[in-house]
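Q: We require from you a single protein entry containing the residue sequence and its fold in token form, and nothing else.
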Amino acid sequence: MHWDQAAGLFRRGGAPPGWRLRPKQQPLTARAKATTLAAIALLGALPYAEEMARCLRGTEAGQ
């Protein structure tokens, strides 16, 4: 998307690379942020929930 900046990293382009952090011109909507956080929480917690279920089944079976 920013070939001039990519080329500038290797001193091939006319523009030097920009290392400043800048806010996006079109920031994410609140809905997109909430969806992303919910997906991270779900996918992060899912393996732990599955392991808890295995542990509880093993305890009930007397293992």
Observations:
- The radius of gyration is 23 Å.
- Residues 30-60 form the longest helix (31 residues).
